[in-house]
């Protein structure tokens, strides 16, 4: 069972905001939402390949999304160099 469309947007926004604060990135609301959602998708894919399944509840997905968004910010910074 998934989180739902609106809950995914809220969790994605929070995850992106957390990542932008941790990584000291100046991102806006829309980019925070995108970073959080895409970061959660990427990190869930990587974790599943490693045999780890994050529960489809808001707190685990918030953590996975924040980690994934942080990884995306880090990757973007490395590619800009």
From TrEMBL:
The chain crosses the membrane at residues 6-22, 29-46, 58-76. It comes from the Bacteria. It is found in: Cell membrane. It is a multi-pass membrane protein. Keywords: Cell membrane, Membrane, Transmembrane, Transmembrane helix. InterPro entries: Transgly_assoc (IPR007341). Belongs to the UPF0410 family. This is GlsB/YeaQ/YmgE family stress response membrane protein. The lineage of its organism: Bacteria, Pseudomonadati, Pseudomonadota, Alphaproteobacteria, Rhodobacterales.
